[in-house]
Amino acid sequence: MALRAAFFLLALTALFWAVTLWRAARAEARAEANHPPMGQMIPVKGGRIHAEVIGSGPDVVLIHGSSGSTRDMGFALAPLLADRYRVILFDRPGLGYSDALNPAGASIAEQADALVEAAEALGAARPIVVGQSYGGAVALAWAVRHPDRLAALVPVSAASHPWDVPLELFYRITATRLGHWLVLPLLTAWVPERTVTRVLAEVFAPQPVPPGFARYFGPHMTLRRASLRANALQRANLLAEIEALAPLYPQISVPVEIIHGTADTIVDPGLHAQTLSDRVPGARVTWLQNVGHMPHHVAAPEVAAAIDRAATRAGLRKSV
């Protein structure tokens, strides 16, 4: 009797797992069909980077944050810039349609190297580099590692300095092999829509999610297993990478325009923006009062103005 029950339980588990893998594959296929790549694939060392290019003028590179894609920077900010800049939007390695490049999780240094290579392939030898949140850390790595390959730097809500808050349990689990093989398929297959809505609201707080953003951005692209894995590994490794990078910030010599919301509860304004401003010679910081973590959406004109100031300081744009 016990053997029969065990066999039944095993068969039931196998059936559930088969359905989970089927649902996960179906969800990924639906996400990609609804949000296909809008740009081109650029070969770089170790794989390919997805890039979208719009507008004309001096080059501006936009680097999205965790769990993002070109559609994050492309929703509100890029259209404000395209009338006076050639805007290059990249999917960071492992996210959107870019290859992961490193199965252990591409570091911010590796990501910066790949995006520099991709930018040069597009003819952008010295762009203004704009990075939001995690993308801000990649932008800082770009400025430190390739000082002659950018004209100015605009960190937006950027993670820049070591913190003492433990890594979230979600990333501690999903960055492991067990999490990769067991937890990620469950998330891709079964995560309820209300959870997606709640997480989006938390990221944008205290401002609301802009109308139409979720449909344009496609959060289910982030819920693909490969993207969840890449994002988890990158987040798990970030603190140690920031600890190594931060002492080198005084070497940054290009114009730096920092922009950060005072109500950001995800990347602490004082620890990151103010400390970065204090450590980078000539850096300027613009505080957005009562703005949260997503100023490139909820305060896009102010972010565009910071990019204009950086372009002016770099000699790429006349003062207006």
Q: Indicate the CATH architecture of the domain at 39-163 and 237-313.
A: 3-Layer(aba) Sandwich
Gross geometry: elongated
Helix proportion range: 40-55%
> What is the H-and-E element order?
HEEEHHEHEHEHHHHHHEHEHH
Q: What's the arrangement of secondary structure elements?
A:
Layout: H1 2-34, E1 40-44, E2 47-55, E3 59-63, H2 70-75, H3 77-81, E4 86-90, H4 108-121, E5 128-132, H5 134-145, E6 152-156, H6 169-174, H7 177-190, H8 193-204, H9 213-217, H10 219-222, H11 225-245, E7 257-261, H12 269-279, E8 284-288, H13 295-298, H14 300-313
Parallel strand pairs: 3-4, 3-5, 5-6, 7-8
Antiparallel strand pairs: 1-2, 2-4
Description:
This protein is α/β, with parallel strands linked by helices and 320 residues long. The chain has a domain of 202 residues: Rossmann fold (3-Layer(aba) Sandwich), CATH 3.40.50.1820. The chain is built from 14 helices and 8 strands. A 6-stranded mixed β-sheet has the order 1-2-4-3-5-6, sandwiched between helices. Strands 7-8 form a two-stranded parallel ribbon. Helix 12 links the parallel strand 7 and strand 8. Helix 4 crosses helix 5.
